[in-house]
Amino acid sequence: MEGRAQETLQSAPPSKTKSALENMEHLALLKRWFYRGSRTGEIFFADEKGELPMRRIVRGISRVFRGEKPEAEPVNPPPTP
């Protein structure tokens, strides 16, 4: 499964440089998804070398497929005004 996930990720076209406006729109969508009460799916970030955590991705795929809750990660609440 890890090999299949890696092959699929490598077959995706490389991302192009985006404008500041497009980056802001993507961050707004990510923020909206992240702070939702019930979110579907998971997010994975590359490490310092730019490599993705393949085992975590495979486990995440399995959890989403089975309908389980994502791994619990500590979330800092937004600061109160």
Brief account:
With 81 residues, this protein is an all-alpha fold. Helix content is 47%, strand content 0%.
- Assembly level: single chain
Main sheet summary: none
Structural class: mainly alpha
Mean pLDDT: 83
- C-alpha geometry: flat
- As a percent range, the share of strand residues is under 5%
Output the radius of gyration: 15 Å
Query: Share of helix among residues?
Result: 40-55%
The strand count comes to 0
Distance between the termini: 46 Å
Number of helices: 3
The run of helices and strands is HHH
Poorly predicted ranges: none
What can you see in these coordinates?
It contains 3 helices and no strands. The longest helix is centred in the middle third of the chain and has 15 residues, at 20-34. The protein has a domain at 43-71. The radius of gyration is 15 Å and the shape is flat. The protein has helices spanning 2-11, 20-34, 54-66. The model has no long low-confidence stretch (mean pLDDT 83). The termini are far apart. With 81 residues, it is mainly alpha-helical.
